Amino acid sequence: MTRTTQHNRPAPPTSGNPQRGVTATAFAVLRRHRRALAGATVRLVGLSGLAGLLTTATIFALSWPLFTRMRNQRIWYHHVEDPYLHDHTDLALVALCTLPLFLLLLGTGSAALQSACSRAVTAGTQVLSEEERLRAPVRTRLRPVLAVYTLRGLVVWPLPLLVGAVANSLTGLHLDTDEQLLERGSWPHTLVAASPVVAAFAAVLLRLALALAPAAAAEGLGARAALRRSWSLTWTRAGGARVLALALPLAALTAGVLRLAVQLALPLRPLVRTLLEQATGNFFAAYYAGILAPVAVGILVTAALPLPLTYTAFAVLHDHLRSPRTPPRRAGDTADSTA
User: For 63-215, where are the E strands, in sequence order?
Assistant: First the structure.
């Protein structure tokens, strides 16, 4: 009788009481480790904001000849009393070329914050002091999480981007001629025009199926092993429903905080524009810096408020889904999964 009772007892999750739900466990973790997580969040958001500011200032400095040419053209057109509409093509090219730098910056900060939240979730089972638990090696866990972000992005996003580019080349407004391949109003034209929406929907589903991979990588798994574990845990009746039920409100919360923070930071736009124009005498550099200022504030506020909750909740969900199915990870599993 005793053996049967112990055999049927589920393995306790590493986050604590197995009877608690994901939301209750996540808030319990945040409350228990509030000082450590708050300190880590402040440090990471502050360092990321400083790095982003320095990167943006460097890009503006390198692009200064472009802003100078735009200013000179504006002065000339004003002198000859003609309207001047500056071309955004060069600025769009600069933004496209520098986008990988900002993606790397955002990915590194997100991976570090995800690692800190995952350490807080798994700290309950390690036989260490509180200080040693929360001072676990960050670098060893940061690399697999960054690798998961990179590999997941390469898996999820090329399809909708490729489909969107092909659909635009076949149905774009510039092809409104008698010799175009797809006639407007025909069913092939309608199908091709709707294909980016279908591809984006498939990408969102694939992204949800891999949502638990960073939490698995923070435990020490390699990138491919973490993606496989997330896929196996999500593509079940219980796993998929729980991931969707957790992702929808957290996505709405994150989008709402971002929107609210940007709106509240809009008074920075004329302030930054005025100060920078007075300091440099270049209207266009000040104009675009004013546009970016509220967006940067919104991103930093979003990273500081809803993201720790999101990362902790997904780490707890990964822990709950994994615990009944996966035996506790031994010390040698990290090297095997990485290989």
Answer: none
Burial class of 47 by CB neighbour count within 10 A (0 to 12, 13 to 18, 19+)? middle
Phi, psi (deg, nearest 5) at residue 107: -65, -40
pLDDT at 247: 96
Comparing C-alpha atoms, which of 308, 149, 155 is closest to residue 214? Answer: 149
Nearest-angstrom CA–CA distance, 223 and 7: 33
Count of beta carbons in the 10 Å neighbourhood of residue 145? 26
What does the block give as tokens for 145? 């999480």
Work out the number of other CB atoms within 10 angstroms of the CB of residue 167: 20
Other residues' Cβ atoms within 10 Å of the Cβ of residue 127 = 6
Express each pLDDT in 141-190 by its tens digit. Answer: 788 999 999 999 999 999 999 999 888 888 765 555 555 566 677 788 78
Residue 164 DSSP one-character state:
H
| Cα–Cα distance, 33 to 43 (Å, whole number) | 15
pLDDT digits (tens, 9 = 90+) for 21-51: 899 999 999 999 999 999 999 999 999 999 9
Question: Where is pLDDT greater, at 333 or 103?
Answer: 103
**Whole-number pLDDT of residue 220:** 85
* Residues 234, 212 contacting (CB under 8 angstroms): yes
DSSP summary character for residue 183: -
Q: Give the residue from 94, 117, 99 showing the smallest Cα distance to 52.
A: 99
pLDDT by residue (tens digit) across 113-150? 999 999 999 875 443 444 444 444 455 578 899 999 99
Residue with tokens 């391949």: 181
Interatomic CA distance for residues 339 and 80, integer angstroms: 68
Residue matched to tokens 């997904």: 314
Helices H / strands E in the chain, number of each:
16, 0
Look at the block and give the residue holding tokens 């060069």. 90
Rounded CA gap, 73 and 65, in Å? 12
Contact 119, 137 (CB under 8 A): no
| Single-letter amino acid, residue 256 | G
